[in-house]
Amino acid sequence: MTPLAVYREVHPPTGVSLCAAAYFTHVEERGASKTPPNVLLVRATRLEVLSVRAAEGDDTPRLEEAASYALDGRVESLAVLKSRVPGLQRDALLLTFRDAKLVVLDWDAATDSIMPSSLHCFEGDPMLTCGRTACAQPPLALADPQGRCAAVAMLQNVLAVLPAVETDVLESQLAAGGALAPAGGLPATVASSYLIQLGKLGIREVRDAAFLHRYNEPVLLVLHEPKPTWAGAARDRRDTAALVALSLNVQQRRHTRLWAAEGLPADALRLEASPAGGALVLCQSLILYHTQGASCALVVGSSVYAGVPLEPLIFNAMLEPPSVPTTKHARQFATNVPPDAAPAAATGAPRAEGFDLDLIGSAGAWLTDSTLLLALQSGELAFVHLHADGGLVKRLRVSRAGFASPSAGMCRLDEELLFMGSWAGESLLVRSVPEGAVLALPAPRKDASPDEAASELEAAERPEKRQRLEPVPSGLGDADEDDEVSLIYRTAEGRRGLAAVGASRFELRALDSLPGIGPRGPPELVVAVGAGRAGALALLRRALVPEVVTEVPLPGVQGLWAVRYQPQGLPWEPSMDWHAFLLMAAPGGTKALRTDEELDELPPTAAGLRLDRRTLLAGNLLSASRIIQVHPAGVTRLKPMDVGLLDDPAPSTGTSGVYCLVARASGLLQVYAAPSLQLLAEFHAFQDGPQLLQPIEPDNLATPCEAAASGPAVTELRMESFERAPAGNPLAVCRQPVLVALLADGSLLAYRAFDAGAGGIGIFVCGERPLWLLAMRGTLMVHPMDVEGAVLGFTPFHNINCPRGFISATASGALRICQLPARVRLDTHWPLQKVPLRATPHRVAFYAEARLYALLTSRQVPYKPRLEEEVGGDPHATYAYIAADAAAKEKGTELGAEVRLLAPGRWATVWRHALPPGEEPLTLAVLRLRDAVSGATQPLVAVGTCLPLGEDYPAVGRVTFFSVMRAEKSEGEEEPGASDWTADMIYTREFPAGPVTAMATLDGHLVIAAGNRVETHAWRGGRLQRTAFYDAQVLVSSLAVVKSYILAGDVHQGLTFLRCSEKATKLEELSRDFGQTDVRAADFLINGRKLYLAAADAGQTLRLWSYEQHAQSWGGKRLLPLGALHTGDEVGALLMRRMPPPPPLATRLQAALAGTLAGALGVLAPLWEGADGAALLRLQALLALALPHAAGLNPAAFGQRYQKLPQSLGGGLQLGQPLAYGCVLDGNLLARFLDAPRSRQAELAEQLGAPAARQ
User: Residue 701: pLDDT band by 50, 70, 90 thresholds?
Assistant: First the structure.
């Protein structure tokens, strides 16, 4: 087996799928002043541990990253095992993975990382699966609220119980083994697990489970469906869900059935255990409360109350066409619920007036024992209040709370703080305060005068200064986007606050936000992300592009230093914050400029500077009252006589020490205290790049090391602290100082150090590939800045004309005064700018001729009557068409689609067109069609839609063409910001074969996928003329075209490889996949003269095929499967892009850019000729066993999961032998070789028999 391609994730997932609060890295403090718990986030295959802290001088809590790990598995559920002894014990984390795996994680304070305390695998026993080949429900981790045990509900009807180890037992076990309690407290630990066969108790098809509060023993409430039903059998079996409460005696391993409830609606899907006892059962339009001996219900939707019995639909063709009585019947019963299909629990239940909520996919968190905050998939927030009488809940009430991004999970941190994780938009840290309560106001600045402090407190108390979540809208239509922009980018306008939240008991205020860019559309640099009101365009750049204030040609600059000057004895003033002088090193000496409103060059004798010498280093001393200049002849310290303009704002009040770091040729790193030069710590093998710097024992300090260490030498060393956030950027904080070392081979080492000092925003690394190390959220964000080429010199520059900017000297001889880009988030893995749309974006394409972006969106709009149905149509289609119109009229709103044109830069909508009501937006493309009459090529914006007409009639597709042109303006009409472009609809056509899902061009012809048919059309005189067609299998989901070849992906029947004739008059099937793969996206890979076919399936697997004619491919009729790699995240789009070959090769390489639904970005690239694929394959196998992996997961087993996926979960059919692992290399695993210490790299290379040279 020879590796043919490699897949690597280049941008991690951003959509939050799970979240929880836990005292994971620290114990819960006792007393009134407590440190908030950690926020644990799961982003598909990534685990993040966040801390909640406030920056110095700012009492507003912010989220900071404590740790982040890429996992070799997709986390299906998350639970927290609470500590039994607050103040002495930390919480433990439980993660589950398919099909039935559990990992229990602790925090190791000694290494500042996670550590698995136990691994549990419940797979392999056929008695547990009861003959099932697949389980629709993933394993669900649960934890008792008092920390007495944990459980895992899995395999539909199996429960694994894990008792918690008592603290005294754990301490005695540690003492018996001669071990000491770890620093930071003992972790919560589980003992040996045991299984309960729920099927023997009559519990089958478990949907959800939750531990109940206020019981002496752990009590588990299970929501299950003994006899499953479906929508087509609702009249026969409608109320099939049930509840069972089990009391678990974990010591004796006995379980008792306490109480049960039957006859729950079939759409009961989730449980929310109340802290006051009992639990809420969430259905689609119904909320139920159940506890032992009491229950109540509340209707929050309009689709649960029983209506009137349906009247028979009778046709009399002699009197009128069948479509006439069909129309009348559809309008009369469009919103009617048949009595035999309505849930019994809704009978007699009160209705929440003014609400029509859909609770499917909702997430909740309890603000108090009787108030639940629900976040719906539409982005709407609602409070659910429990009203008790005599100790029992008798009534439920719902009130509105506002809007936010669609939430995937919520968790409460303390009495006020709440975290809302979103899969599609911004995840928020929220403060919830009861209305009328006294807010904890931020303290005034320490350096503020009494009058300034009073004014700051007065301003903070004003309600308009509190930033709240988005209010409940008063109407529909075009909403003001300023508040959305301020929420995303935290501008000054955002602090003016929004309207009142509404009639609720709590006020919700957004304190911090984490960006999210999932799910992705086509993975362009401009990406359509989000849904509903959280929909936006995300502008992604791999490199940071600064905003250039001015640029002057100035060749020969080799170094830059901007220095401040503050005269001693004078009070600090804001004007002293500017830089006073700029020194520029050149080969023949130094140039000095005075940085006032203009840059003035100083004479050679000014201020005592050695301008005849080349400056090596310059800076400030003694609170910027002295300037120091280092040059080859020595060191010059000077005190300028002229009053400068700048100095540090308010001096730091900290008492942190000053340290001197020395990196010796032997690889020894020494830390001295300044000015005493007392040796504090030593670290061996620093150049080796170990993951953790461990100091030498005190007895061995100051041991001489004479021999030089192997490996590159340390060329530059820097330790910085970023504890104080700069003005206007509260996220630019990294509480723990960082140690950064640059090695001779260009490698960069970065470590978190110990507490010390205060500083700025980050570190800039000059060189051929310059990059930023920005201190953000407690860590370093690495952003390249190689768009300008090599940078020879760099200095921060703070001037009245360039606040908080910098100056760079490029290798091309230019001196640039720049600023960091505005409205671009830098606390992300790639610089990110979001353009809010207040709609769900479906597709985006670039119209190059006008430099505009075409966008296909949908949102809730006021009802608009549909076109009248023609008399004599099919009754089934007529009924579905009229019923949809009547239902939308009854509701008053409906989902409307529109096409927009956006101008880059200001990102304003310059033109929009609403599509007909009822049409579902599916695809958009910019096509360049050649007119068969004139031969001219015409660029068009094409939109493909679908009009669903019910179950009994095929959906109708439609294609609409728009022509973009310059807008005609009358003389003198030139509005500020008016667009020069507009568009007109020039052509539309229906396709009865089915929905239009994809479009492409082939040699000037249109290739279109409509239903299960692939067609080619010629553009002739403003009309489409079909020239050829091919009938595929079920539904074509994607199209890819290269030269005369077409690759069609089917939603259930794999790939079909077609060839088009020269004049597009014939489509010939060359080969196809017989494995029945559920294709979500497909494209080509090109490696020179070799063509590969790539596809992403619904089973989260990337697959590779080839077209060859030999016996194994049945003479070419069957696509030959080459390899696969399981990624753990469903890929939504593949986009072919040219890949530069490594020099000196000139081979044409085409890679596929993959965008995932979790907001990740990956690259599937072919291995070019000359790449040692066999060595990479051996290295991959070695790394899977030789390196420790996060949470104890096996990357090789995870990458081969496609071999075990059944067809029902998107795995397809296995024809012949299973695909071998390794044809598609795991680039994420191979990249860990570069992260290993150099000594470990050498050991691994020696085992492979290859040199360990870094590429």
Answer: low
Largest interatomic CA distance in the chain: 111
Average pLDDT score over residue span 662-678:
81
Q: Is 88 exposed, middle or buried (0-12, 13-18, 19+ CB in 10 A)?
A: middle
Q: How many residues does the chain have?
A: 1255
Cα dihedral sign, 991-996-998-999: positive
Between the CA of residue 438 and those of 432, 441, 456, 609, what are the distances in Å?
12, 9, 17, 58
- Phi first, then psi: give them for residue 857, nearest 5 degrees: -130, 170
Pick the closest to residue 1038 from 1081, 1007, 993 (CA basis).
1081
Phi-psi sector, 646: left (phi>0), alpha (psi -120 to 50), beta: beta
pLDDT for 462 equals: 43
Cα gap 695→680, rounded to integer Å:
10
- List, in sequence order, every beta strand (DSSP E) within 747-820: 748-752, 762-765, 771-776, 779-784, 791-799, 802-810, 814-819
Angle at 160 between CA 158 and CA 164, to 5 degrees: 160
Given a cut of 50, is residue 240 above it in pLDDT? yes
1057-1067: per-residue pLDDT in tens? 999 988 888 99
Report the Cα 829 to chain-centroid distance in Å. Answer: 10
Task: Report how far residue 156's alpha carbon sits from residue 197's, in angstroms, rounded to the nearest whole number.
Answer: 10
Nearest to residue 1097, comparing CAs of 1121, 1144, 1129, 1060?
Answer: 1129
Distance CA 1035, CA 1032 (A): 8
| End-to-end Cα separation, the chain, in angstroms | 24
pLDDT of 1020 strictly over 60: yes
Spell out the alpha helix ranges (H) of 543-632.
none
Residues 6+ apart with CB under 8 A from 1022: 986, 987
Q: Which residues contact 712 (CB under 8 A, 6 or more apart)?
A: 687, 743, 744, 745, 747
> Of 418, 443, 425, 429, nearest to 506 (Cα)?
418
- Work out the burial of residue 548: count CB atoms within 10 Å of its CB; fewer than 13 is exposed, 13-18 middle, 19 or more buried: middle
Q: CB-hemisphere CA count at 13 Å for 1128?
A: 29
Residue 626: pLDDT above 90? no
Do 240 and 180 contact (CB within 8 A), yes or no?
no
The one-letter amino acid code at 933 reads: V
∠ CA 776-781-783, rounded to 5°:
130
Beta bridge partners of 743: 714
Which residue is listed with tokens 């794999």?
A: 1054
Q: Name the strands in the sheet holding 840-847, side by side, starting at the edge strand that comes first in the sequence.
A: 840-847, 852-862, 893-903, 908-914
Given a contact cutoff of 8 angstroms between Cβ atoms, the answer to whether 257 and 201 are in contact is yes
Q: Which residues of 609-618 are buried (b: 16+ CB within 10 A; e: fewer)?
A: bbbebbbeeb
- Top-confidence range, 257-271, 308-322, 645-659: 257-271
Looking up tokens 């079939």 gives 266
Q: Which residues pair with 897 in a beta bridge?
A: 858
3-state secondary structure 820-843: CCCCCECCCCCCEEEEECCCEEEE
At 715-765, the pLDDT tens digits run: 888 877 766 555 555 555 566 677 888 888 878 888 765 432 233 478 888
Confidence of residue 450 (pLDDT cuts 50, 70, 90): very low
Mean of the pLDDT values across residues 1049-1070? Answer: 92
| Cβ pair 1064, 1058 in contact under 8 A | no
Q: Which residue has the tokens 């009534």?
A: 395
Residue 188 has pLDDT above 80, yes or no: yes
E strand or H helix that includes residue 114: strand 113-121
Distance in angstroms (rounded) separating the CA atoms of residues 1161 and 748 = 24
Pick the range with the lowest mean pLDDT from 206-210, 585-589, 732-736, 803-807: 732-736
Whether 159 contacts 152, CB under 8 Å: yes
Contact of 79 with 24, CB cutoff 8 Å: no
What's at 458, amino acid-wise? Answer: E
Q: Any alpha helices (H) in 1103-1172, and if so which ranges?
A: none
